[in-house]
Amino acid sequence: MLVIGLGRFGSSIALTLERLGHEVLAVERSPELVQHYTGRFPLVEADATNPEALVQLGARDFGVAVVGVGTSLEASVLVTGNLVDLGTPQIWAKAISSEHARILHRIGAHHVVLPEADAGNRVAHLVSGKLLDYIEVEDGFTIVKMRPPRETQGFTVGQSQIRKKYGVTVIGVKPPGEDFVYATEETRISGNDLLIVSGHADLLERFAARP
To answer: pTM for the complete prediction?
Structure first.
Protein backbone atom coordinates (compact mmCIF):
# COMPACT_ATOMS: atom_id res chain seq x y z
CA MET A 1 0.00 0.00 0.00
CA LEU A 2 1.18 3.48 -0.84
CA VAL A 3 0.94 6.17 1.85
CA ILE A 4 1.67 9.74 0.79
CA GLY A 5 2.30 12.30 3.50
CA LEU A 6 3.59 11.47 6.97
CA GLY A 7 1.73 13.92 9.16
CA ARG A 8 -0.21 12.56 12.13
CA PHE A 9 -2.84 10.96 9.89
CA GLY A 10 -0.53 9.40 7.31
CA SER A 11 2.10 8.22 9.78
CA SER A 12 -0.55 6.58 11.97
CA ILE A 13 -1.91 4.71 8.96
CA ALA A 14 1.54 3.64 7.78
CA LEU A 15 2.56 2.41 11.24
CA THR A 16 -0.69 0.49 11.71
CA LEU A 17 -0.55 -1.12 8.26
CA GLU A 18 3.04 -2.15 8.89
CA ARG A 19 2.08 -3.64 12.26
CA LEU A 20 -0.76 -5.58 10.60
CA GLY A 21 1.70 -7.16 8.18
CA HIS A 22 0.91 -5.19 5.03
CA GLU A 23 3.61 -4.10 2.62
CA VAL A 24 3.84 -0.32 2.87
CA LEU A 25 5.74 2.31 0.93
CA ALA A 26 5.53 5.81 2.36
CA VAL A 27 6.30 8.97 0.41
CA GLU A 28 7.19 12.23 2.15
CA ARG A 29 8.86 15.38 0.85
CA SER A 30 9.96 16.74 4.23
CA PRO A 31 13.55 15.63 5.02
CA GLU A 32 12.85 15.99 8.74
CA LEU A 33 9.88 13.60 8.65
CA VAL A 34 11.76 11.17 6.44
CA GLN A 35 14.60 11.12 8.95
CA HIS A 36 12.15 10.70 11.85
CA TYR A 37 10.46 7.64 10.37
CA THR A 38 13.47 5.99 8.75
CA GLY A 39 13.64 2.39 9.91
CA ARG A 40 9.98 2.26 10.96
CA PHE A 41 8.71 1.28 7.49
CA PRO A 42 9.93 1.59 3.89
CA LEU A 43 9.84 5.22 2.77
CA VAL A 44 11.28 7.55 0.19
CA GLU A 45 11.78 11.28 0.08
CA ALA A 46 9.92 12.59 -2.95
CA ASP A 47 7.40 15.20 -4.04
CA ALA A 48 4.22 13.33 -4.99
CA THR A 49 2.72 16.47 -6.56
CA ASN A 50 5.11 15.70 -9.42
CA PRO A 51 3.54 12.92 -11.52
CA GLU A 52 6.94 11.82 -12.80
CA ALA A 53 8.09 11.16 -9.24
CA LEU A 54 5.13 8.83 -8.68
CA VAL A 55 5.86 6.98 -11.92
CA GLN A 56 9.49 6.50 -10.90
CA LEU A 57 8.37 5.17 -7.53
CA GLY A 58 6.24 2.53 -9.21
CA ALA A 59 2.94 3.97 -7.95
CA ARG A 60 1.12 2.13 -10.73
CA ASP A 61 1.91 -1.14 -8.98
CA PHE A 62 -0.09 -0.29 -5.86
CA GLY A 63 -3.74 -1.27 -5.59
CA VAL A 64 -4.41 1.10 -2.69
CA ALA A 65 -3.04 4.59 -2.05
CA VAL A 66 -3.67 6.85 0.95
CA VAL A 67 -3.21 10.59 0.53
CA GLY A 68 -2.44 11.92 3.98
CA VAL A 69 -1.61 15.41 2.73
CA GLY A 70 -4.22 17.64 4.32
CA THR A 71 -2.83 21.01 5.34
CA SER A 72 -2.20 22.12 1.74
CA LEU A 73 -5.36 21.83 -0.34
CA GLU A 74 -3.40 22.40 -3.55
CA ALA A 75 -0.91 19.63 -2.78
CA SER A 76 -3.69 17.27 -1.72
CA VAL A 77 -5.59 17.84 -4.96
CA LEU A 78 -2.48 17.51 -7.12
CA VAL A 79 -1.40 14.24 -5.48
CA THR A 80 -4.89 12.78 -5.69
CA GLY A 81 -5.23 13.85 -9.32
CA ASN A 82 -1.90 12.24 -10.14
CA LEU A 83 -3.05 8.95 -8.63
CA VAL A 84 -6.33 9.16 -10.56
CA ASP A 85 -4.37 9.69 -13.79
CA LEU A 86 -2.24 6.65 -12.97
CA GLY A 87 -5.38 4.55 -12.58
CA THR A 88 -4.90 3.64 -8.92
CA PRO A 89 -7.81 1.27 -8.12
CA GLN A 90 -8.49 2.56 -4.58
CA ILE A 91 -7.62 6.09 -3.46
CA TRP A 92 -8.25 7.16 0.13
CA ALA A 93 -7.73 10.87 0.73
CA LYS A 94 -7.74 13.05 3.83
CA ALA A 95 -9.76 16.26 3.75
CA ILE A 96 -9.76 19.15 6.21
CA SER A 97 -13.16 20.58 5.26
CA SER A 98 -16.38 19.60 3.50
CA GLU A 99 -15.38 21.76 0.53
CA HIS A 100 -12.03 20.02 0.36
CA ALA A 101 -13.81 16.66 0.51
CA ARG A 102 -16.16 17.68 -2.31
CA ILE A 103 -13.24 18.58 -4.55
CA LEU A 104 -11.44 15.30 -3.82
CA HIS A 105 -14.58 13.34 -4.68
CA ARG A 106 -15.01 15.27 -7.91
CA ILE A 107 -11.50 14.62 -9.15
CA GLY A 108 -11.84 10.90 -8.53
CA ALA A 109 -10.93 9.94 -4.94
CA HIS A 110 -12.83 6.77 -4.05
CA HIS A 111 -12.93 7.42 -0.30
CA VAL A 112 -12.58 10.75 1.50
CA VAL A 113 -11.93 10.93 5.23
CA LEU A 114 -12.42 13.98 7.46
CA PRO A 115 -10.58 12.78 10.59
CA GLU A 116 -11.36 15.75 12.84
CA ALA A 117 -15.02 15.95 11.82
CA ASP A 118 -15.46 12.18 12.18
CA ALA A 119 -13.76 12.16 15.57
CA GLY A 120 -15.80 15.14 16.74
CA ASN A 121 -19.03 13.49 15.67
CA ARG A 122 -18.12 10.29 17.49
CA VAL A 123 -17.06 12.03 20.70
CA ALA A 124 -20.20 14.20 20.70
CA HIS A 125 -22.35 11.08 20.73
CA LEU A 126 -20.26 9.53 23.51
CA VAL A 127 -20.21 12.53 25.86
CA SER A 128 -23.87 13.40 25.41
CA GLY A 129 -25.38 10.09 26.45
CA LYS A 130 -24.85 6.58 27.76
CA LEU A 131 -22.97 5.19 24.78
CA LEU A 132 -19.59 3.57 25.47
CA ASP A 133 -18.53 3.41 21.83
CA TYR A 134 -19.97 4.64 18.56
CA ILE A 135 -19.19 3.74 14.94
CA GLU A 136 -21.21 5.27 12.09
CA VAL A 137 -20.91 2.92 9.13
CA GLU A 138 -22.75 4.75 6.35
CA ASP A 139 -25.90 6.79 5.70
CA GLY A 140 -26.81 6.93 9.38
CA PHE A 141 -26.43 3.19 10.00
CA THR A 142 -24.52 2.93 13.26
CA ILE A 143 -23.17 0.34 15.68
CA VAL A 144 -22.82 1.20 19.38
CA LYS A 145 -21.63 -0.35 22.61
CA MET A 146 -23.83 0.51 25.58
CA ARG A 147 -25.19 -0.53 28.96
CA PRO A 148 -28.67 -2.08 28.86
CA PRO A 149 -31.63 0.13 29.79
CA ARG A 150 -33.35 -0.94 33.01
CA GLU A 151 -36.45 -2.17 31.19
CA THR A 152 -34.42 -4.85 29.38
CA GLN A 153 -32.56 -6.20 32.41
CA GLY A 154 -33.61 -9.66 33.50
CA PHE A 155 -35.45 -10.31 30.24
CA THR A 156 -34.49 -12.04 27.01
CA VAL A 157 -34.02 -10.06 23.82
CA GLY A 158 -37.30 -11.48 22.57
CA GLN A 159 -39.22 -10.61 25.72
CA SER A 160 -37.89 -7.05 25.67
CA GLN A 161 -39.16 -6.54 22.09
CA ILE A 162 -36.33 -4.07 21.51
CA ARG A 163 -36.54 -4.16 17.74
CA LYS A 164 -40.33 -3.72 17.73
CA LYS A 165 -40.30 -0.87 20.27
CA TYR A 166 -37.19 1.01 19.23
CA GLY A 167 -36.30 -0.14 15.70
CA VAL A 168 -32.77 -1.24 16.67
CA THR A 169 -31.15 -4.68 16.75
CA VAL A 170 -29.10 -6.23 19.55
CA ILE A 171 -26.19 -7.91 17.78
CA GLY A 172 -24.24 -9.19 20.75
CA VAL A 173 -24.13 -9.37 24.54
CA LYS A 174 -21.06 -9.48 26.78
CA PRO A 175 -21.59 -10.68 30.36
CA PRO A 176 -18.91 -9.56 32.86
CA GLY A 177 -15.66 -11.53 32.47
CA GLU A 178 -16.95 -13.43 29.44
CA ASP A 179 -16.63 -13.09 25.68
CA PHE A 180 -19.20 -11.41 23.48
CA VAL A 181 -21.85 -13.80 22.15
CA TYR A 182 -24.14 -13.22 19.21
CA ALA A 183 -27.59 -12.37 20.49
CA THR A 184 -30.68 -14.44 19.76
CA GLU A 185 -34.27 -14.01 20.88
CA GLU A 186 -33.44 -16.28 23.85
CA THR A 187 -30.38 -14.31 25.01
CA ARG A 188 -31.02 -12.97 28.51
CA ILE A 189 -29.77 -9.49 29.40
CA SER A 190 -28.48 -8.57 32.85
CA GLY A 191 -27.73 -5.17 34.32
CA ASN A 192 -23.96 -5.71 34.16
CA ASP A 193 -23.88 -6.76 30.53
CA LEU A 194 -22.54 -4.77 27.61
CA LEU A 195 -24.71 -4.64 24.50
CA ILE A 196 -23.66 -4.24 20.88
CA VAL A 197 -26.62 -2.65 19.09
CA SER A 198 -27.09 -1.57 15.47
CA GLY A 199 -29.55 0.71 13.74
CA HIS A 200 -30.07 4.27 12.62
CA ALA A 201 -28.23 6.81 14.78
CA ASP A 202 -31.39 8.64 15.85
CA LEU A 203 -33.10 5.42 16.94
CA LEU A 204 -30.02 4.28 18.84
CA GLU A 205 -29.84 7.60 20.70
CA ARG A 206 -33.50 7.18 21.66
CA PHE A 207 -32.90 3.65 22.91
CA ALA A 208 -29.74 4.62 24.81
CA ALA A 209 -31.59 7.49 26.50
CA ARG A 210 -33.90 5.05 28.27
CA PRO A 211 -33.20 4.91 32.05
So the answer is: 0.66
